[in-house]
Amino acid sequence: MFKPLALAAACVIGAASVAGAQTLDRSLSVDAGLGMKYTPEFMGSDKLEAAPWLILKNVDADRGQPDGLSIAPSLNYIGKRDADDTRGLHGLDDIGYAGEIGFKLSWRSGNAVSYGALRKGFGGHHGTVGEVGAKYRFEYNDKLTFWAGGELGLGSSDFTGTYFGVTEGESASSGKRAFNPDGGAYIARATLEARYEFMPDTALMGRVTYGRLLGDAGDSPIVETRSQPSISIGIARRLNFRF
After folding, report:
1. How is domain 3-21+31-242 classified at the CATH fold level?
2. At a CB cut-off of 8 Å and minimum separation 6, what does 121 contact?
3. CA-to-CA distance for 56 and 99, rounded, in angstroms?
4. How many whole angstroms separate alpha carbon 60 and alpha carbon 104?
5. Which among 12, 88, 89, 109 is least buried, having the fewest CB atoms inside 10 angstroms?
């Protein structure tokens, strides 16, 4: 059910073996902070809304990180979905806040990083999700850094069923056709990020993302448009750990 991400993770590990990596980097640098984002009201919505942005960004492509394979925690959250708040969701069940926890494997070579992440959801959904992708770093100067990248979002049928499915009961109450999506690649994303360090270890963060829903997710009767853009800005503090 989740073969694409498992294969991608195996490829990352295999590439590290071929390159002769003997140990994994066990240091972790994270940009953590708060900001605001302008994002679709729900996955598949054609309307954007302002919402809090919880910044929790692994610094796996930043200056000073060693080349080779690294492993780090991967965390994510998804806001709640209230059917009564949006006309396009009337008659559907509410979905609570969801947390996701797992790990991320990254392979770095110079300014380029490829990665695969795998997480298990809890709360609003209990599916398995992750990403495979790559990004490249551009340093304008010592304070301003840009990243450009692309990734493929993957989700199990439990995940896609939660956010894109319509049960028989929901179909009767909403008028939408019943729909049971398969798991797999559900979104492709292109992202441009920027970090301006105006104080030591404190930075202004910005991100522009264009996403495109794919496959069964894009075919869902809930989806109003496959295009899913977002803009985010906030302030973050650099945190460094070793484990």
Report:
1. Outer membrane phospholipase (ompla); Chain C (2.40.230)
2. 98, 99, 100, 127, 128, 129, 158, 159
3. 13
4. 10
5. 109
